[in-house]
Amino acid sequence: YFASVLDGFVVFVFIALIVFAIRRGIFRPKQLTSFLHGPWDGFIILGLIFLVIFTLAFVEGFQYAVSQEWTPIGAFLGPLLASAGPQVALAGYRVSWWLHMFTVLGFLIYLPRSKHLHLLATPFNVFFSNYQPKGALPMLENIEEREDYGVSKVEQFTWKQLLDGYACTECGRCNTVCPAMNTGKPLYPKEIILGVKEELFERSDEILSDNTIFSKLGLVKLKTDETETEHQPMIGGTISKEALWSCTSCMACMEICPVAIEHVPKIIDMRRSLVMEESEFPQEVTSLFNNIERNGNPWEISNDTRAEWAAELAVPLMGENPDADVLYWVGCMGSFDLRNKKVSTAVAKILQAAKVNFAILGPEETCTGDPARRIGNEYLWQTQAQQNIETLNNYGFNLAGQENGHASHNGHSTDTTKHRTIITACPHCFNTIKNEYPQLGGNYDVVHHTVFIEQLMSKGEITLPEGFDKRKLTYHDPCYIGRYNDVYDEPRRVLTVLNNNVTEMRRNRNKSFCCGGGGGRAWMEEKVGKRVNQTRVNEALETNAEVLAASCPFCITMFEDGVKGIEAEEKLKIEDISEIIASAIEK
Ligand code: SF4
Ligand code: SF4
Questions:
Q1: DSSP H/E element including 275
Q2: What per-residue confidence (pLDDT) applies to 414?
Q3: Domain carrying residue 38
Q4: Each residue's pLDDT tens digit, 547-567
Q5: d(CA 231, CA 126)
Q6: Is the distance from CB of 36 to CB of 238 less than 8 angstroms?
Q7: Residue 408's pLDDT is what?
Q8: Residues 248 and 514: beta-carbon distance below 8 Å
Q9: Ligand 1: which of 240, 248, 514 to mutate, judged by most atoms within 8 Å of the beta carbon?
Q10: Which residue among 277, 306, 321 closes a domain?
């Protein structure tokens, strides 16, 4: 029985080898190639697997010829091999057996330096994968006292980040979905992972000789001035700076990776080193950093004017309505950007129509720090986050504080025992407040505006005229609420109440294609390749939709630029879901 299962497996592997050899040798999918090493590793592995099953088949065949011991392959090959005579069959059996053993042992020696190491590393990589919120970047602890900021040398990565390199199957799926790679930027997420692994191999003697158990056991030489060799820096050497700056942090690579490899935290760790240790970043973001630091927003605009968009809407500030059930976190784009102020107005009108007791922070709100963190300025993110957490806690929004009493702010006493919610129309604010502020003690109930609107609708607090919007419409899933926070259904449910003509783009939900604005890219120039925003707008146009609905101020800005860039303003309107709802309410 065992022999039949084994031989069935041998036949299956043989067919698979032919298929994969044809794929690799003839079709040569681009994602399987790597700049860091040629295609030979794949062929060597296919060859070794072939040798293992080939020699096994001959072991069985000669064994049958010598002793009539039945196995399916033996019974097939044995009679052919027996014709050479018993002495030859016995010698053939011994030679095949030794060849089989040498191939298996040779494979084991080759394995640790080959991509096939993923067979051993993958189970551990998946088991130890990050179970924290996937939208949260790891925090740099004790930032004031640290001597290093981020990662410039491979040994500064955590052991889990290094294990990622061993687990990589080099399938290249991450490359195929990367918006940067797809639009001609010099970023190949697979090469980032392989680059880290390559760097580790390059510097392995140096790292292991650094007074570790290996040097104590005499397995490697202790590092001395003579043994120390000069290596080119990892960033700018094996991993290019242009690649690091091309990333939109869309997380498409992490979502598709079959072995739970985490690309984005590594890219941000290396950006942190560039920004905080080397002061090296695209010069366009200098003003972003300065303005967030000075004005609490990305522009040269006084933060005192943050609530001006709401002047005619009678929206109270938290200082005026400290017991509001809901805080509408407007965000910098919603407060200052001309296009996105219309979205803020729409959200406020929806809340008013639903009679929600809400308020905004106005000048007390300041940038969440998300763009700074994604660009690599962790220090600025922590400063912004601490300031916002203090404000939110003073108004009693911290879930921990709600369990035990009162807070006061500016002389106002606030009932902190009641459950209070923060809503925001910005997925970047949403993600950082919900998933990253807990790293600094700020735990809040944060809801994206599309989810909140859906809740209002299902509770009957707003009713919308069904089928009100007759236009053909498609919805773009923003990365920071889609892949980052798995919000896919609520925006669609809201839209389909109003509109029976909602269609999907070919890349949707967790496969959605980035607008190009995440990871701080909205603040950087895009000088290489096609524009990411235009690529996505073209995908929307393929559906013949008249409206591209979004739910992120960055997506809206990127798409507005995108339609202008390809002169499609007349064909495709860009609207936030809240704008569509608000116009339905007003009718
Ligand atoms: S996060 Fe997005 S842009 Fe960055 S490497 Fe991954 S797929 Fe590419
Ligand atoms: S998708 Fe994952 S396993 Fe495949 S090449 Fe990319 S990092 Fe490696």
A1: none
A2: 57
A3: 2-113
A4: 999 999 999 999 999 999 999
A5: 32
A6: yes
A7: 47
A8: yes
A9: 248
A10: 277
